[in-house]
Amino acid sequence: MQRQRRIALMGGSFNPVHIGHLMVADYVRQAAHLDEVLMCVSPLNPLKAGNTDLASDTDRMEMLRLACMRCPGVTPCDIELTMPKPSYTIDTLRLLAGRYPDASISIIIGSDNWLVFDRWRASREIIERYGVIVYPRPGYDIEASSLPANVIKIDAPTVDLSSTFLRDKLAEGLEMNIFMPDRVYDYIKKKKLYGT
Predict the structure, then answer these.
(1) What's this model's pTM, rounded to 2 decimal places?
(2) How many CB atoms are closer than 10 A to CB 168?
(3) Among 33, 116, 157, 159, which has the highest number of CB atoms less than 10 A from its own CB?
């Protein structure tokens, strides 16, 4: 009998996507024995719509597509950009389960998100029906022994690097090419994103 495919969703604004995102996605894919990680661009928060340092959905999706070229098994996903807003993770998971009926689907979140996970819509259903993979974030320690069934902690390497930091430094005119794939950096410069 064939083993069920294992797919995990890793959502984010990816504004811009950087090496920290890719390191976590690829490491968790391997350590959790996943067949595929779907890196899913989340729609822009309507409350931040007037904020000029937020790239468009199209630009963020294209940067993610370029970034994933160097990571086999890590795939860009635009499912949330096609859903009614606001979109909730539970709705995304249900839609993915319909798209991949032969796969088990779970989500990947940082330990910072796990600490507020009980506030997520249908958090119990997400845990019981899909499962959660938690990776460490600096300053947000959790004990693996404290986690409920169907939630696992993967000790992925922590990178204290944020998209906000990169946007700020790009706007200051600093070269940030070492922090992101070359194709993504070239795209940012070409499209003059983030004040470059």
Answers:
(1) 0.92
(2) 15
(3) 159
Identify the CA nearest to 194 among candidates 163, 172, 162, 171. 171
Contact 41, 139 (CB under 8 A): no
Residue 54 in contact with residue 18, Cβ under 8 Å?
Answer: no
Q: What is the pLDDT of residues 117-141, one digit of tens each?
A: 999 999 999 999 999 999 999 899 9
The residue count of the chain comes to 196
List the one residue out of 110, 45, 99, 94 whose CA is nearest residue 75.
99
3-state secondary structure of 75: strand
Rounded Cα–Cα distance for residues 182 and 94 (Å): 35
pLDDT for 48-71, tens place per residue? 555 556 899 999 999 999 999 989
Backbone phi, psi, residue 66, to 5°: -65, -40
